[in-house]
Amino acid sequence: MTLAEWCVLGALLLYLLTITSIKWIRFRGFDNARPRDPAFYEDAIAQRALGAHQNGIETFPFFAFAVLLAEFRDSPQRLIDELAVLFLIVRIAYVLTYLGNRPALRSILWSIGFAINLGIFFMPLLKRLLPV
C-alpha cells in the first residue's frame, strides 16, 4: 500500500474518531438504541463534534477518489503521497479548530484541504500537459 492509501484510511478513521470520542467521553448520556437522539447533541462541544464528523463524511469520498484516480493514472506517487499527508494534517487541524470553536480558521483550513484535493484530482491532467 502507498502512503497516500494509508492517508485515505487515516481520513476515514479521523471522521469516525471525531464522533466516537464524544460518545466515549459522555458514554453515560449516550443511548446506543437511539444514536441520533438530538438530546445527546444539545451541548456545544457535542454539536461541534457532530458537525466535524458530518463534514468528514462529506469530504472523504472526494479525497479517496482523487487519490485513487491519481494513482491509477500513473501520476507521480511521491507527489500524491505528499499531498495526501498534507491533506490529512489539514483535516486534523480542521477538526481541532471545529472542536475549539474557531470558525474563521476552520473555513480557511477547509478551503486549503479542498485545494489539496483538487490538486490531487487534477494531477493526471497536469501530467499530460507538462513536458516529460
UniProtKB/TrEMBL annotation:
Transmembrane segments: 6-25, 83-101, 107-126
Main location group: membrane
InterPro entries in the cross-refs: MAPEG-like_dom_sf, Membr-assoc_MAPEG
Compartments where found: Membrane
Domain of life: Bacteria
Coiled-coil residue spans: none
Keywords: Membrane, Transmembrane, Transmembrane helix
Gene Ontology terms: cellular component: membrane
PANTHER family xrefs: BLR7753 PROTEIN (PTHR35371:SF1), INNER MEMBRANE PROTEIN (PTHR35371)
Protein name: MAPEG family protein
